[in-house]
Design goal:
With 492 residues, the chain is mainly alpha-helical. It is built from 21 helices and no strands. Helix 4 runs antiparallel to helix 5. Keywords: Membrane, Sugar transport, Symport, Transmembrane, Transmembrane helix, Transport.
Length: 492
């Protein structure tokens, strides 16, 4: 099947399609708010006194080990349980996404997340807290499975990278808002933590409203046999009537996909192996940059370095703001510079930042005592340079690349593996980080630095450039041309 050039796909940017992008991207705001809120709540005294009194008692000791005062498996379970729940639910979300469509699955994500916010804010016992986290996790699993796919499928090809990165942009905005909320509620005794957790319902409610505005994607409608509705939806999101070339591409991809009865089993076929391997490794590497360790526990981390509670939350707000601003760099550059260059540049910047933080803390922050003001400020700057580079590279591209590289017949199944892998390793890092910080102390930053070196090698040798390639033409234009991956197709 020959592939038409990108410019032959007619499209205009209309108010309606931009509103579709924005409303769907509230799924990212939902996810980001939860990432940001967990670490701040975990550091609030009122929260610890009610649910984790042992941690609070350790925190009170003046000479407590800087690196170990928050080391508690149940406290870490408060954060990680969400991601274990999201891991399992992403596979159910994949089925819903294929059988029901993108829009109904996004609707379900918002309902689960609202339920999680209500239960979490009303919690009186630890088990209620964990149930709330599990409901949050189902919402995240459904949202993270569906929203990036939705954005990729409705975006015009020349803006596909930028539109998909709106998901990550809203993740960073959610983290930033959560840090502001935590900063404000930390003085609302004794129920500030309830306000922080309960406000998670707001982005979910906005996503719920959006479900009544957005259309389902043309690819999803055609995949489910609704050809006329699919063509009408394509005209609506492209803002033009002449969509025949792109519509025929979608129909051709659907006809190939119909021959596939078991999409999860077909992930082992040649066309799906490269995107599957890359999708999984991108998620593993994204977590082993150490980003979520910093974003989950930024307030705790800054308290470890000697900042008082308010100063720790304020420093987390600063890093959140850097996170948001830097994501705009990715939106601007991803379809101009390309995916690979952004990833490789970020590896260099993240490596330098992590090594510098590790050296400063290993030399100057002992088990007791604090950093002096100058060194503490330098560490905050280094954390910001690290967050900055992640925000325009491995953060957004970890979601973009898997959403654009699978063929239609395995797209939702393949992306479910990407989401579940992300959730698995996010939960592992969330569950283990405070213990790793206790055992490894400052050397934890050298641990993450080693992973960043591996990430760079992965990009150099295994990751092709996908900028400007139609999503239903990846096999011919990308995988069969790549020096490593083309070997899978030598018998075809």
């Amino acid at each position: 099947m020959s592939t038409p050039p990108a410019q032959s796909y007619n499209s205009k940017i209309t108010v309606y399609v931009v509103s579709c992008w924005i409303f769907a991207a509230f799924g990212g705001l939902m996810f980001g708010y939860d990432i940001g809120i967990s670490g701040g709540v975990s550091g609030m005294d009122d929260f610890l006194i009610k649910f984790f009194p042992n941690v609070y008692e350790r925190k009170l000791h003046a000479k407590e080990n800087n690196y170990c005062k928050y080391d508690d498996q149940l406290l870490q379970l408060f954060t990680s349980s969400l991601y274990l729940s999201a891991l399992v639910s992403s596979f159910f979300a994949s089925k819903a996404c294929s059988a029901l469509g993108r829009r109904p699955t996004i609707f379900m994500a918002s309902i689960f997340f609202i339920a999680g916010a209500i239960v979490s804010a009303a919690s009186e016992y630890r088990w209620m807290l964990i149930v709330g986290r599990i409901l949050f996790g189902v919402g995240v699993g459904f949202g993270n499975e569906t929203v990036p796919l939705f954005l990729t499928e409705v975006a015009p090809i020349q803006l596909r990278g930028a539109v998909n990165i709106m998901f990550q942009l809203f993740v960073t905005i959610g983290i930033f808002i959560a840090n502001l909320v935590n900063y404000a509620t930390s003085t609302m005794h004794p129920n500030g933590w309830r306000v922080s957790l309960g406000l998670a319902a707001v982005p979910a409610f906005l996503l719920l409203i959006g479900c009544f505005v957005i259309t389902d994607t043309p690819a999803s409608l055609v995949e489910r046999g609704k050809d006329d509705q699919g063509k009408a939806a394509l005209k609506k999101i492209r803002g033009v009537d002449d969509v025949e070339v792109e519509y025929k591409e979608i129909i051709a991809a659907r006809d190939e996909a119909m021959a596939v009865k078991h999409p999860f089993r077909n992930l082992l076929k040649a066309a799906s192996v490269p995107p599957l391997v890359i999708a999984i490794l991108l998620q593993v590497f994204q977590q082993f940059t150490g980003i979520n360790a910093i974003m989950f526990y930024a307030p705790v981390l800054f308290q470890t370095m000697g900042f008082k509670s308010d100063g720790a939350l304020l420093s987390a707000v600063i890093t959140g703001l850097v996170n948001v601003g830097s994501t705009f760099v990715s939106i601007y550059a991803v379809d101009k510079v390309g995916r690979r260059k952004l990833l490789l540049q970020a590896c260099c910047q993240m490596l330098i930042s992590q090594l510098a933080i590790g050296f400063i803390l290993s030399i100057n922050l002992k088990e007791t005592g604090t950093l002096d003001r100058t060194l503490a400020a330098i560490v905050v700057v280094l954390v910001c340079t690290y967050v900055m580079s992640f925000a325009w590279s491995w953060g957004p591209l970890g979601w973009l690349i898997p959403s654009e590289t699978f063929p239609m017949e395995t797209r939702t199944a393949g992306f479910a593996f990407a989401v579940s892998t992300n959730m698995l390793f996010t939960s592992l890092i969330a569950q283990a980080f405070l213990t790793m910080l206790c055992k490894m102390q400052a050397y934890i930053f050298f641990f993450f630095s080693g992973w960043i070196v591996l990430m760079g090698l992965f990009v150099i040798f295994l990751l092709p450039e996908t900028k400007g390639v139609p999503i239903d033409s990846m096999v011919e234009n990308v995988w069969k041309q790549h020096p490593v991956w083309k070997k899978l197709f030598k018998n075809e």
